[in-house]
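Entry:
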Amino acid sequence: MIDAPRLVDSAAVPDSEGTLRLLRHGRDLVICVDDRELMRSSVHGSEDALGQLACERLDDLWSPRILIGGLGMGFTLAATLRGLGPDARVVVAELVPTVVRWNRGLLGEVAGHPLADARVSVHEGDVAELIREPPAVTSCAVWDAILLDVDNGPVGLTRATNDGLYTSAGLEAAFRALKPRGVLAIWSAAPDRAFTRRLARAGFEVESVDLRSRGQRGGHRHVVWLGTRQQVGPRWLAGWDRK
């Protein structure tokens, strides 16, 4: 018999009335927003796939720069690091500082302490800030890949302002921030045909990959979109490129 979930810690979600809670449930660690489960330490097949699939499309770049939006339990970050060489640089943006603290402590144990990797730096803030204004660069096109594991995907759950990442304007900002042939990889808790079309209109070559939350063992159906920035962008980009 598994004991009832036990509260380990909690944190307010910025710009939201919601509360993130870290629970211990048997052998699992669980993150909930209020009473709704977001992620569980024993169920991370699709999060692993997000990092793996993005790295497979980087064509063995010598020194790729990767931006990850959303730290969660660290599984996407850990999978990304496994797919990269020693010269890669990964910035992970996490809005809730307490989640970073959890990953430096108790949560770090379940993902193999990816934040301790020397290739990683942490931005405690909104990933949209780094998409709109990449750090310490002279050109907006700075990232070889942007991975978004924010909220539940295009339909937000914890914070309404997360939805802006997945609007046409948000996708256009990601397009500008990526180098040519750069990859935008997006995790979602559910399929969304309208969002697939929106990605294509933003100038991406789009692939949608159906996954299971428990990998090959089944579980809920999740989706990872892989959008590759085309060499020649859509018409809305033409004027911007000449600036």
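The longest strand covers residues 178-188.
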